[in-house]
């Protein structure tokens, strides 16, 4: 039995229809992942370019935009086991090179856009993200960022688990190797999310109602 038949037999790969109240989250698109020679360099310039287009479209559509960054106290005690498992995370310690901790060029937050500071892979874990999205009555979360197999995947899984429709934009996520990138996208589509093209995401944003026009009761 090949993989497609195996998954089809199990009823995986069902499709989720996006809702009417989307937000965009830009996950950890920081200079540490973009600069050759950096410990976390992911060589994902094409994903960055697509994320810039997606971010501009989200802003034009008037939907909420959120960004995540990683920050640890000196010594990384607030990063726990994750910090011990991945020593490269010391890049994000207080006092480390601030230029690597900066948002990637073209993806800098604008005033009024929410910035979530996190210590773990998922943007939901130990943060106010779920409460913020609930208060905004968001039902769909467009996701771009790095890395596909790490923080993007963890965020998409948790989005599903808190009742949101996760739309992972394939062109706008990146990883340091093709195998974990593709495996993660396959798994997300099979079980937790919709993996969509940039063109599909842009078309969806073209139908989105700006946040300040949403009907409230």
Q: Can you give keywords for this protein?
A:
alpha/beta, 9 helices, six-stranded parallel β-sheet, Rossmann fold, globular
Characterise the protein shown here.
With 217 residues, the chain is of the alpha/beta class. It has one domain (19-208): 3-Layer(aba) Sandwich (Rossmann fold). Helices cover 37% and strands 17% of the residues. It contains nine helices and six strands, in the order H-E-H-H-E-H-H-E-H-E-H-E-H-E-H. It has helices spanning 3-9, 31-34, 45-61, 80-85, 98-101, 129-135, 148-161, 178-191, 198-205; strands at residues 22-27, 65-70, 114-118, 140-146, 165-174, 194-196. The longest helix is centred in the first third of the chain and has 17 residues, at 45-61. The model has no long low-confidence stretch (mean pLDDT 94).
Instruction: Please tell me the CATH architecture by its name.
Output: 3-Layer(aba) Sandwich
What is the rounded Rg?
17 Å
Work out the helix count.
Answer: 9
Question: SSE string, helix = H, strand = E?
Answer: HEHHEHHEHEHEHEH
Secondary-structure class: alpha/beta
CATH superfamily descriptor = Isochorismatase-like
Q: Work out the strand percent.
A: 15-25%
Trace the largest sheet across and list its strands: 3-2-1-4-5-6
* Global mean pLDDT: 94
Beta strand count: 6
Q: Return the CATH topology.
A: Rossmann fold
Low-confidence stretches: none
Condensed summary:
The protein is α/β, with parallel strands linked by helices and 217 residues long. The protein has nine helices and six strands.
């Amino acid at each position: 039995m090949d993989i497609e038949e195996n998954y089809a037999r199990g009823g995986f790969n069902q499709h989720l229809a996006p809702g009417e109240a989307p937000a965009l989250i830009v996950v950890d698109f920081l200079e540490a992942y973009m600069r050759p020679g950096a410990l976390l360099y992911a060589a994902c310039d094409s994903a960055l370019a697509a994320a810039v287009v997606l971010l501009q479209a989200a802003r034009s559509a008037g939907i909420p935009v959120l960004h995540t960054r990683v920050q640890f106290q000196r010594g990384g005690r607030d990063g726990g086991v994750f910090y011990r498992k991945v020593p490269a995370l010391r890049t994000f310690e207080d006092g480390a090179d601030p230029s690597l901790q900066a948002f990637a060029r073209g993806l800098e937050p604008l005033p009024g856009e929410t910035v979530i500071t996190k210590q773990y892979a998922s943007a939901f874990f130990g943060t106010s993200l779920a409460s913020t999205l609930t208060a905004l009555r968001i039902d769909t979360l467009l996701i771009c960022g790095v890395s596909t197999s790490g923080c993007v995947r963890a965020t998409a899984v948790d989005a599903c688990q808190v009742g949101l429709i996760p739309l992972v934009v394939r062109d706008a996520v990146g990883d340091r190797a093709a195998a974990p990138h593709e495996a993660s996208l396959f798994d997300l589509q099979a079980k937790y999310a919709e993996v969509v093209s940039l063109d599909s995401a842009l078309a969806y944003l073209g139908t989105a109602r700006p946040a300040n026009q949403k009907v409230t009761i």
